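This entry is passed on directly below:
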Amino acid sequence: MESQTSGGVKMASGSMQKTKVAIVGLGNVGSGVARLLLDHGDRTARHAGRTLWLEKAVVRDLAKHRGVDLPAGILTDDVEEVYNNPEIAVVAHLVGGLEPARTIMIRLLEAGKDVVTANKALLAEHGPELFTLARQLGRTIAFEASVAGGIPIVTNISQCLSANGILSLEGILNGTSNFILTKMDRFGTPYAEAVAEAQRLGYAEEDPTMDVDGSDAAQKLAILAHLAFGAQVNWRDIPRVGIDSLDVEDLRYAAQLGYAIKLLAEARLVEGKLDLSVSPTLIKRRTPLAEVQDAFNAVRVVGDAVGPVFYHGLGAGQMPTASAVVADLIDTAVGRTRLTFETLEPFSTNSPPRVSLRNSDELPGRYYFRLRAKDHPGTLAAITGVFGKHQLSIASVLQHERGETLEDQQDDLVPLMIMSHQGAEGSARAVAEEIEALGVVRGHVTRLRVKTP
């Protein structure tokens, strides 16, 4: 009877069928995957009906501590040992970035391996190429861990909700941004301090740009939009606004109006066209999305048969993401991934899109505007006149007394918050730009979307 040992725990294979797997990239998530395979082999074997045998783990630095005890002979810095081993059937591809991640995945597929990946940037950028190659070679790519960490949203959309036509999906897909917004909202922490705390706790990278400017959420939304609607969209073409221009004032004023602010990724099918956007959005408090805190993610999907369903959980971190990777390893080993992959709409730019994207200027929505304006007669009339010019109706105006800064006191500036009725994105953008140019307005005009039911 063969066994693998980690931390003194034995995983026996006995006479059970064995599927040999490898991990390429033993970072934070990779170490978690190794721990689940080695310490909980009985659990994975029960679900897979076979032993998932960790054959190799590829790293760049053999001397670096990994936080997991590996049996002798598993650790290597030579990925060729995986490519050239015909007994390794499935590989957890846990290399970040675009290169060498793309090249490694191509080599794995060409070597006859099925692949499980957590790299959403790679799929968002090179998905059509990689999926086409996998199909040509008779291989599969599983990618549950690429979106929303431990939330099984890919499986639910592609399998559990397959009897539905998806009408909309909206979600908080970036845990870093949600953590930052939670600190700003709950404690009044300034943006820069909240980012620094996220970095200290390991939620944000040294360069957090992709998280805070909306790019990470747009990449994940592109993947979900393909699964749910058959959309062929480059993530760069999704209209996106990050949280990096927000001020604590915006969260405070939103709270006064009964809203929380979340970085919301939305995909909505309207009259055969798909609306896509990523933006800080005002969401009514005491609703499920508004109450998602810290580094948690959530996705709300509406199907034409099932109605609304809501998924909530940790969207990042070692073990939640490792959980999704190991689930994909199990599904691939027993053949479930192949069934799904073969019926999944081709992730290819050569395939005709099932839906077309609406022009971003036509995106409907309500909007919140915050600005500083002169406390003079006629100021409000000038501002509301711009709204009328662009046919964007005003729902409410909230004016505070002069601002707290010395500049506001000396220049007679007052903060104004304006909520609009439903209108087009292009009209709202034009209103903000024109108001910003008025002589009675100082500084930048903040414009945020407001979630409608």
User: Anything to note?
Assistant: The longest strand covers residues 259-270. The domain at 362-450 is CATH 3.30.70.260 (Alpha-Beta Plaits). The chain has three domains: 3-146, 153-313, 362-450. Residues 7-13 have pLDDT under 50 and may be disordered.
